[in-house]
Write a sequence for this structure.
């Protein structure tokens, strides 16, 4: 009588949403786009801070809201359109550095550093590299059994 559960080959990706997300993430500069998006979101949140240390420049602080909004947009476009990553990363680093003057010192340095780091990661991402093998694949190649649990 055949087994009800098919045997999995070691190193083969498991079907399901997690493996689908991993394949999607491997084909784009995921961490760079995520950090750039989070940096812009953090700067936008500090614009609404109830602190008295708020710096606005321009018409009613328009630049203080425009730059982080464009940072979030560049980060999302990096995630969903990785072919244009060089343009988005260069624009993102310029917007991040511009937020120093327009948006509470770049979201009190946190948003500025997240944006610059994400832009640099995006700029340095190479699309034609093979994805790194996972821990299970490396253990299978070494001949060690994979841990359970």
């Amino acid at each position: 009588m055949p087994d009800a559960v098919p045997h999995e080959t070691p190193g083969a990706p498991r079907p399901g949403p997690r493996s689908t997300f991993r394949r999607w993430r491997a084909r784009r500069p995921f961490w760079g786009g995520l950090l750039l998006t989070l940096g812009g979101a953090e700067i936008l949140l500090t614009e609404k801070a109830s602190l008295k240390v708020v710096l606005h420049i321009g018409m009613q602080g328009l630049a203080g809201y425009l730059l982080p909004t464009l940072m979030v947009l560049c980060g999302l476009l990096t995630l969903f359109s990785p072919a244009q990553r060089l343009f988005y990363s260069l624009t993102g680093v310029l917007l991040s550095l511009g937020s120093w003057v327009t948006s509470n010192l770049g979201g009190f340095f946190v948003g500025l550093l997240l944006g610059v780091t994400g832009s640099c990661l995006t700029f340095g991402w190479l699309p034609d590299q093979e994805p790194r093998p996972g821990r299970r694949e490396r253990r299978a190649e070494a001949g060690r059994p994979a841990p359970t649990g």
The helical segments are 17-26, 30-47, 62-80, 85-102, 104-108, 110-124, 135-142. The chain has a mean pLDDT of 82.
